[in-house]
Amino acid sequence: MKTNQEIVGYVLGATIFVVLLPTMMWLAAETPEPEEINVLRASIAGVPILGGLALSIWSIVHMKRRGKGNPMDAFNHEIGPRTQILMTDGPYRLNRNPMLTGTFIYLLGFVVLFWRWEALLVWVIFVAIMLLQVRREEMRLLRDFGEEYEAYRRRTNRFLPFKRYRGNTGKRN
């Protein structure tokens, strides 16, 4: 049962984030023809597409190996088994949501590729929805891991890889 649930989680995640969202962006951008996308723009777009995908895959593999779980937890509906260990190393030392950060970067590459405001609008809507999901997930992580998660939250940003401080106060901007 657990293996089937994991497989469903990975297939669902790949379908939504790697296939469905770029397709929605392509359709929203009025399905640009391949000849409308020049080589320079495609080359530039390839950097965030490949980089974001690599960061997301690294995060998923790390979550499976270290956290003993699956990333698919949609608005408190467990699609795959949740992680058993709070991950603060590997890609999770960069920020608290490297998988989602990678997905944002990956999809931003498609915004560059299609170069239409409609594709950007799909990206903005997706980011807004995911911000709501992240807030819910953070509440669950606080319940599941308590002070360990709170300490991790204090020392890492939600999405950015670098923590910013004001002077010597130790407070974030």
Overall CATH architecture: Up-down Bundle
What percent of residues are in strands?
Answer: under 5%
Helix tally? 4
The termini sit apart by 45 Å
How many discrete domains?
1
Please summarize the sheet with the most strands: 2 strands, antiparallel
Give start-end ranges of low-pLDDT stretches: 165-173
Give the helices and strands as they follow along the chain: HHEEHH
Broad structural category: mainly alpha
Rg calculated over all Cα atoms: 17 Å
The first-level CATH class name? Mainly Alpha
Structure characterization notes:
With 173 residues, this protein is an all-alpha fold. It has a single domain, classed as Four Helix Bundle (Hemerythrin (Met), subunit A), CATH 1.20.120. It contains 4 helices and 2 strands. The chain has helices at 2-28, 39-66, 98-114, 117-155, and strands spanning 73-74, 77-78. Strands 1-2 form a two-stranded antiparallel sheet. Strand 1 (73-74) and strand 2 (77-78) form a beta hairpin. Helix 1 packs parallel to helix 3 (98-114), helix 1 (2-28) packs across helix 4 and helix 3 (98-114) runs antiparallel to helix 4 (117-155). The termini are far apart.
